[in-house]
Write a structure and sequence with these properties.
This protein has 13 helices and eight strands. The protein is of the alpha/beta class and 397 residues long. It folds into two domains: 292 residues, Alpha/Beta hydrolase fold, catalytic domain (Rossmann fold, 3-Layer(aba) Sandwich), CATH 3.40.50.1820; 84 residues. The protein has an eight-stranded mixed sheet, with helices on both faces. Helix 7 packs across helix 8 and helix 10 packs antiparallel against helix 12. It starts with 5 loop residues before the first helix and ends with a helix.
Length: 397
Amino acid sequence: MCPPSGRARRAVSQSAVQVRDLPLSMASGPPTRTVTAANLAAARRDLDAARAAEDTARAELLEALLACGGSLLIYLPSRDHYGVELGSIEDALHVAVLVPGVGTDVNLANQWLPSARNLFEAAEATAVILWKAYDEPADLAAAAARTVACDDELHTAAAGLTGFVRSLPLRPSQSLTVVAHSFGSVVTGAALAHHGLECSAVVVAGSPGMTVDDLRQLHLDAAHFYSERAPGDPVAELGVFGAEPTSPVFGGTRMRTNAPGHVAVRAHSAYFEPGSESLENIADVVTGRYRDIAVHQASLAESAGGLVAWALRLPTMPIGVVARRYRGPGFRVLANARHLVDMTASQAGNAVCEGLDTGGRVIAWAERHLAGPSGGSRVAGGPSVPTTPTEWSRDTP
């Protein structure tokens, strides 16, 4: 059984304030100023009701929505579906649709809205739309269960994203980039692979996979696909939703995230930090400054790990294709088998990469500290051999 979806959980939790959605047609069709004005008025009424009922959590969310300086393109509060436009699509040269991952109202107020604002301020002549209009699973562990219900909700979300992008009143001269973070990249992958999502470029950051084995299955040219993975991001290392988009064998361009003199990106939620190289690269893609992108150069260890993961997935790729479409008897067995292979391949690839990387540091340390001036053995009284990789990495020539 699939854990409760976002919609089901919120239906249980929203008891302090009764909220009513605007007619669905107003939120699903092309956004107009009449719609956004009606959404704004509804949000203000709901905020007054939340304050009167002392519903602090909902009041803080509505305050964040109203204070972000954007237009409410989508406002379905009973389902926690929102769409916020920063800037003006009509006036912008570029449009970015930001698709966030799993989370709660707290994430929307404290993480996703600020991330959209940071991207808006970093990318000139760009309108940024935060699209949080799908029923996300309870968490990544629930999504990784790959049950029929979760899979159906994923495709519903993917179809919703595709429909929303198609509804945007874009001019032929405008570029449209989909920027997806975490589970949002899973939704974007399903939209590209199965629902005909079309855009100028795609950026995924901290992705646990995109439901495919390689870039070709996304029906996207390699020159239009970009990915980021920060050091120590545990979600990007999961590999539970297909091949890792940052793998050297996946295709596309992996961008750097941490350059000297920039704000460090060391957490899953930090890709949009102002002053970070990761945000600069995302802004370069959105604005079409592809030559300014700082490309991550894959090490030998990363390439070897990617090849190992790809080789382990290769025999089961036909099963994966069938499992993504088949819904008859034995579907759960196929889906779980594919899920197990994805996880095993990713973990094996990560282990190979880490092993080779650690071995390289050991050899480099030995070359610096154990060899004498003329290449002989270590002299008496020299430095002791480190016992952890941390000590190797702290050494400097």
